[in-house]
Design goal:
The complex is a heterodimer of chains A (about 675) and B (about 350). Chain A has about 675 residues and is mainly α. Chain A contains 31 helices and 7 strands. Among the domains of chain A are: about 150 residues, 3-Layer(aba) Sandwich (Rossmann fold), CATH 3.40.50.300; about 55 residues; about 120 residues; about 60 residues, no CATH class. Chain B has 3 domains: about 180 residues, Rossmann fold (3-Layer(aba) Sandwich); about 50 residues; about 100 residues, Up-down Bundle (Zinc Finger, Delta Prime, domain 3), CATH 1.20.272. Chain B has a 7-stranded mixed β-sheet with strand order 2-3-4-5-6-1-7, with helices on both faces. In chain B, helix 5 links the parallel strand 5 and strand 6. Chain B is globular. The mean pLDDT of chain B is about 85. Classes of the chains: A mainly alpha (about 675), B alpha/beta (about 350). Chains A and B meet through helix 23, helix 25 and helix 26 of A and helix 9, helix 10, helix 11, helix 13 and helix 14 of B.
């Protein structure tokens, strides 16, 4: 297949060839005057397979490309993601204000009069339209996008770099065959920079402005972020055009490329805009549009999914529009009988065989239960929750009342414990939060008192937390007990909150900010100070307890000139407990809705979690106080505003967003 | 100028101020020539360490007072590096093995081995053995205690151990039976007073007996604390007045305020404030056990007789969890919340009874 592909996609025999066709049409036919290098054979194959971003690339191409490729291949098999790439801001499924934010940044920094390079960092889950936004804006604002892609081998870099060849046939790039990805990356940046300068002095182009787009990073940078930082620093100094970095959020902590920029975000003045998953309503709009167009075009050859099926696709894709469109296409192509079977079989086993896939959507609103159980056979994504939402689900424990007579009643002496049915499955929430139960408990512990109003309740809740810790105390059984521990904690918390016992008593919830747990920090300081004290006052030959509870506090009260500088400093810091700083001394570290929860390291090792809390990201984030909460990271308020007026069928979907909003906006 | 505690620490068995009979016995023990392993126990501030140092001086002469601090690094079998501080003279080595946490077994074995393997330089002029002083033996892991038992037997020829701890309850029986147990009880109030006035006389100060008695009582007969208090009094005000305030440590005051906060209002909001205060105490290295104990004492003094039993039981329950659990704050907070609930209920019931 590889060889077939690399021969070029002119022969439109197979489906797969057709899927990569447009790119080749563009390059070989030379239709486009766009300088963007299209994906080449080997790369595009892997790219498609891994479902990388490249699919979206053709977005950059003007109408011409789509038109031309459509003209060449009237075949329906072309990916809809390409055909229906957004052509204007109006077609983007991204929130309007986000687009505006990006646009205004670009406008400012495309201005040639500005010196130095500027860097924009776009973050967000995959398939939320980050790249599409840039591409659409490129078209509307009239600038070009020059993109870096990791060369799979060094030699390929030469061929990939078609744009240089086309302008500079005697490219000196051959020289860099042996150099590392990092070297190539640096070279790319420098050349991209220089190149624009040359063109400015030369011919006059209508589109003389451009940006550099980087979506993937040489692997080396994950290991040595400093390397990248150095290159970026250099770019800031001598850059001529804006640099846009696009990074997908990921919940698995180790490869989190966002961390690449944590340290330098401030230093380099990188502007960070974070995207949200595509809202179900916007997605519905896009899907419906595509379906309508395709239905007309195909004149009945494809089966048009009905509204319910679209709903399902929407909720199944958890905000990933690319995967939604792909699955839409796929489900439309299969002929009717096959499709029915797929859907039917899925429905059959979804409840039993695939509990993980079940209740896939982010939904748990008033949608009926059986609706939830349906999960799309095609293109379903594993749902995951951001910590913020997961915590909210537990703390706001939504309940629904039993209907009619089927409500089980507890005997009279237990009526205290009568609760309505929970709408949340705590274990599922923890699972989706991608966090160990222990850390999840810490987060709960930090935040739960705000949600209680009665002391009895809170005493009960705190006892459950204590129980949970107690359960996991024994290290030999800890790995097994962790799950029970978190179950006890979450269910205990939910149950003991008697003010939320009934479904109708919950309307008064209101927004309460969530915070990151202090404990790890406190525990670390405790141990550090403990050791410092012991090493400083070793000569007293005292046991640590008497040293710290008797000697040091009294030393603070005495005037004793004999101690050395470090000892004096320590005594001044720790002997005195100022009576004035009673509360609020500890900075509350607000938990943003996008925070991946920096603490999800292995929980077995106390040392490692102490080290984790040392994470520069944490300390840096420390500086952001509550007041910073509604920054660009927290656009939920806008989210609902952006959505078009829901039609009657969309009302259900919309309700989900209301749910978010309840603990998301203030 | 060093602290009074250090300045007027007795240096020989004969000069000890109290428990003179015991001092005599120890002296006899040393003069007998041989000398078994010792297990010295008693409450904090009773003078265990002072007594041990006097004993060592009696054994080896003034040489033991030339102390040096050493940083030893020990590699565990699992290639983990441990840094441990020891205090040593030519004749003895003092170490607190509980600093090493879970690897205390390795520390004990390695240290005793190195000490025991080297002979005394002049065994004719000196004793044939060296002394290893282990403090906080009750905090050793069981593993380490068993290792200690074997080590004790193995190096009996060249090395004597003096173990020092607050209570023997956590020391395993085999060790207890291999040692001569020496209990050092707290000095009585009168003894503390006489020490205090003696120290003040040497300092050229006049200490009113009433104040001395107050200090002795307030310190809980902990002599170290009493001397520190006395010195703090001196800084605060001189000449002493019989009824002057005795300075307390900040954390004790802070803890009392915390207890008052708990008693004065019971609400989730207050619980959050209390949590912040507990964190504050923890960052000042007041260990969770001490916090718990202090809180209970303060709370008990604040609540009605009916509640006391219940509160004490609760405290015991959560203290137990504190020892077994991982994260102290859960248990401290659970205790506070529970107390709040009980106390609030009690107050409301009391109010109800009062009104009808």
């Amino acid at each position: 297949m590889m060889s077939k592909l690399s021969l070029g996609g002119k022969q439109s025999s197979g489906k797969i060839n057709n899927w990569v066709e447009p790119s080749f049409g563009e390059l070989l036919g030379g239709v486009s005057r766009s300088l963007k290098k299209g994906p080449l054979s080997g790369e595009s194959k892997t790219a498609e397979k891994k479902s990388r971003k490249r699919k979206v690339d053709p977005y950059v191409s003007d109408n011409q490309i789509t038109v031309s490729s459509e003209a060449n291949n009237p075949d329906q098999d072309e990916p809809w993601v390409d055909i229906h790439a957004p052509q204007s801001q109006a077609e983007l499924a991204v929130h309007k204000k986000k687009v505006e934010e990006v646009e205004s940044w670009l406008r400012v920094h495309l201005d040639k009069s500005k010196k130095g390079g500027a860097i924009l960092l776009l973050t967000g889950p995959s398939g939320c339209g980050k790249t599409a936004t840039v591409q659409v804006l490129a078209k509307e604002l009239g600038f070009q996008v020059q993109e870096w892609s990791n060369p799979s081998t060094t030699s390929q870099y030469k061929t990939e770099d078609l744009f240089t060849q086309s302008f500079d046939p005697d490219s000196r790039f051959n020289r860099f065959h042996g150099s590392s990805q990092t070297g190539l990356f640096q070279e790319f940046l420098l050349r991209a920079n220089k190149y624009s300068r040359l063109r400015m002095s030369g011919e006059t182009w209508t589109e003389d402005r451009k940006i550099i787009l980087i979506e993937e990073f040489p692997n080396q940078f994950y290991r040595q972020p400093g390397c990248l930082h150095d290159i970026l620093r250099q770019f800031i100094k001598c850059g001529r055009c804006p640099l846009v970095l696009i990074v997908s959020d990921s919940l698995s902590g180790d490869k989190n490329s966002r961390l690449l920029f944590k340290d330098v975000l401030q230093e380099l003045g990188i502007h960070n805009i974070s995207f949200n998953p595509v809202a179900p309503t916007s997605m519905m709009k896009v899907l419906s549009r595509i379906v309508t167009i395709e239905a007309v075009k195909s004149s009945g050859r494809i089966s048009v999914p009905d509204k319910a099926a679209l709903d399902l696709l929407c909720s199944g894709s958890s905000g990933d529009i690319r995967s939604a469109i792909n699955s839409l296409q796929f489900s439309s192509f299969t002929d009717n009988s096959l499709e029915r079977r797929l859907w039917a079989s899925k429905k059959g086993k979804s409840s039993s065989a695939k509990p993980a896939v079940k209740a896939k959507g982010r939904s748990k609103s008033s949608k009926s239960k059986d609706m939830q159980d349906e999960s799309p056979a095609i293109g379903g994504k594993d749902a995951s929750l951001f910590l913020f939402r997961a915590l909210g689900k537990i703390l706001y424990c939504k309940r629904e009342s039993y209907e009619g007579t089927q409500a089980p009643k507890l005997p009279p002496h237990l009526t205290d414990h009568q609760r309505d049915r929970l709408l949340v499955d705590p274990e599922l929430v923890i699972e989706r939060s991608h966090m160990s139960g222990e850390f999840f408990n810490l987060y709960l512990h930090q935040n739960y008192p705000d949600f209680f109003s009665d002391v009895e309740d809170i005493a009960q809740a705190s006892e459950y937390l204590s129980d949970a810790d107690f359960l996991t105390a024994e290290w030999s059984s800890r790995s097994t007990m962790l799950e029970y521990g978190s179950s006890v904690a979450t269910r205990g918390l939910m149950h003991s909150n008697s003010s939320r016992a009934q479904a109708n008593s919950q309307s008064t919830a209101g927004f309460k900010p969530l915070h990151k747990p202090h404990w790890l920090h406190i525990n670390k300081t405790y141990r550090e100070n403990y050791q410092t004290a012991q090493s400083l006052f070793l000569s007293f030959c005292l046991t640590p307890v008497s040293l710290l509870t008797e000697m040091v506090p009294y030393l603070a009260k005495l005037t004793n000139p004999m101690r050395n500088q470090a000892q004096i400093a320590f005594i001044q810091n720790f002997g005195h407990l100022s009576q004035k700083r009673v509360t609020g001394r500890l900075r509350l570290e607000a938990l943003g809705d996008k925070d991946p929860g920096i603490l999800d390291a292995d929980s077995e090792n106390e040392d490692s979690c102490a080290a984790q809390s040392l994470d520069p990201g944490t300390t840096q984030a420390n500086a952001t106080t509550e007041s910073n909460l509604p920054n660009s990271q927290d656009p939920s308020g806008e989210l609902s505003a952006s959505q078009p007026q829901p039609t009657s069928t969309e009302a259900l979907l919309d309700e989900e967003d209301l749910l978010i909003e309840e603990y998301d906006s203030d | 100028m060093s602290l009074w505690v250090d300045k007027y620490r007795p240096t020989s068995l004969a000069k000890l101020d109290y428990h003179k009979e015991q001092a005599n016995q120890l002296k006899n023990l040393v003069q007998c020539g041989d000398f078994p392993h010792l297990l010295v126990y008693g409450p904090s501030g009773a003078g265990k360490k002072t007594r041990i140092m006097c004993l060592l001086r009696e054994l080896y002469g003034a040489g033991v007072e030339k102390l040096r601090i050493e940083h030893q690094s020990i590699t565990t079998p699992s290639k983990k590096k441990l840094e441990i501080n020891t205090i040593a003279s030519n004749y003895h080595l003092e170490v607190n093995p509980s600093d090493a946490g879970n690897s205390d077994r390795v520390v004990i074995q390695e240290l005793i081995k190195t000490v025991a393997q080297s002979q005394q330089i002049q065994s004719s002029a000196q004793r044939e053995f060296k002394v290893v002083l282990l403090t906080e033996v009750d905090r050793l892991t069981k593993d380490a205690q068993h290792a200690l038992r074997r080590t004790m037997e193995k190096y009996m020829a060249t090395c004597r151990l003096i173990l020092c701890c607050n209570s023997t309850s956590k020391v395993i029986a085999p060790i207890r039976s291999r040692c001569l147990a020496v209990r050092v009880p707290l000095p009585s109030v009168e003894e503390v007073c006489s020490v205090l006035s003696g120290v003040c006389r040497k300092e050229g100060l006049l200490l009113p007996p009433e104040l001395a008695k107050q200090i002795a009582e307030k310190s809980g007969r902990n002599l170290r604390k009493a001397l520190l208090m006395c010195e703090a009094c001196r800084v605060q005000q001189y000449p002493f007045s019989p009824d002057q305030d005795i300075p307390e440590t900040d954390w004790e005051v802070y803890l009392r305020e915390t207890a008052n906060a708990i008693v004065s209002q019971q609400s989730p909001q207050r619980l959050l404030e209390v949590r912040a205060r507990l964190y504050e105490l923890l960052t000042h290295c007041i260990s969770p056990e001490v916090i718990m104990k202090g809180l209970v004492t303060e709370l008990l003094s604040n609540c009605d007789g009916h509640l006391k039993a219940e509160v004490a039981q609760m405290a015991a329950y959560y203290e137990h969890r504190l020892q077994l659990g991982n994260k102290a704050i859960y248990h401290l907070e659970a205790f506070v919340a529970k107390f709040m609930a009980i106390y609030k209920k009690f107050m409301e019931d009391g109010l109800g009874n009062f009104m009808f």
